[in-house]
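Tokens help. Our protein:
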Amino acid sequence: MWDNLGDITLGNLTALFIKSAPPGKHEDGDGLRMIKREGGGGQWVFRYTIYGRRRKMGLGGLKTLSLKDARDVASEYRTMVAKGKDPIEHRRKQRQDAMRNRPLLKDVALDAFESRKADLKGDGSAGRWYSPLEHHVLPKLGRMPVTEITQSDIREALMPIWHLKAATATKAANRLKIVLDHAAALGLDVDLQAVAKAKQLLGRQRHQVTSIPSMPWVDVPTFYASLHEPTITHLALRLLILTGLRSAPVRFARLDEIEGDIWTVPANNMKARVGDAEAFRVPLSDEALHVIKLVRPYERDGYLFPSVRKGVISDATMARLMERRGLEARPHGFRTSLRTWLADQTDAPHEVAEMVLAHVSDSKVVRIYRKTDFLDQRRPLMERWAKICTGQCP
């Protein structure tokens, strides 16, 4: 077992504690760990050392695996380790055997997900790629042989959300098409047109996708002035407004990302997939530097906007503040406010204005040959925007 677990005995957790445990990592002992997330969800993880290599594997979610079951599974894997068998490799082989002997949709879907992790943000750790399948397709079709799935089966699975949750349904259908393509690549005889035919049966979606509510840019100065308290939430909102960034780069902002008046946001905090994302340089206005100076006393573990407990503030923290004030607009909408101001009140070229918001407006080949992020052109624009926000410009 891991060296720092030697003083932990098995059976530290109880079923009662699991229900009320705060977010974080909680050790049951001998390699079994519970990871509790905000909102009550979480998962079981088994950590072990084999052949001098430290490894960890997910056992399942807290809602699907009880404490007793998690201990039983961990005990089985500890026995494997004692016999020199790697549980992760054992489970991988089981999945491969299952696909060869009974190519169920759930097995092929998981294999397709594993093969695409390198192209997903954080190796898909957030679960966003797999989630539409896991919640809306696999519960109904997961145990069916992938070769027997028809457009009628797909239609039945997606019908409950096709109009009610149009965006999610579309993602689920698109992911399923990728899974069927993956099955075909494995040599399985699947209907590659099943998803397209299911969409025809489902018909056109009635749900209209709406944009995130934004605030007219002329109203931004008044709202910005109301964020006068030196709290983490107020300061995070101010920095988000001033920079035009999405929530994640601001919430995960670190001191070591800022050098002088340039903030270099790492690629893994940008929206694009890891394979396409690049570190993004943000020119900081005098007001933005002032906000960073005000928030520095709150810094913990390098992060400028830590949460009360552990980690950084949640995605909903800033939105709740605006909601409590009765505002329709949401934090992400300030990107629209900034983009509208750029279009209405400046002569910034389209590609420069799009770069302010880190929008990918050209093909990857064009971006490679362009070799610029328009930092010098963006700098005066961000300074002007800061003066608008602080009421220094009409």
Observations:
- The two ends are 65 Å apart (CA to CA).
- Strands lie at 24-29, 32-36, 42-50, 53-61, 258-259, 262-265, 280-283.
- Residues 1-9, 272-276, 365-369 have pLDDT under 50 and may be disordered.
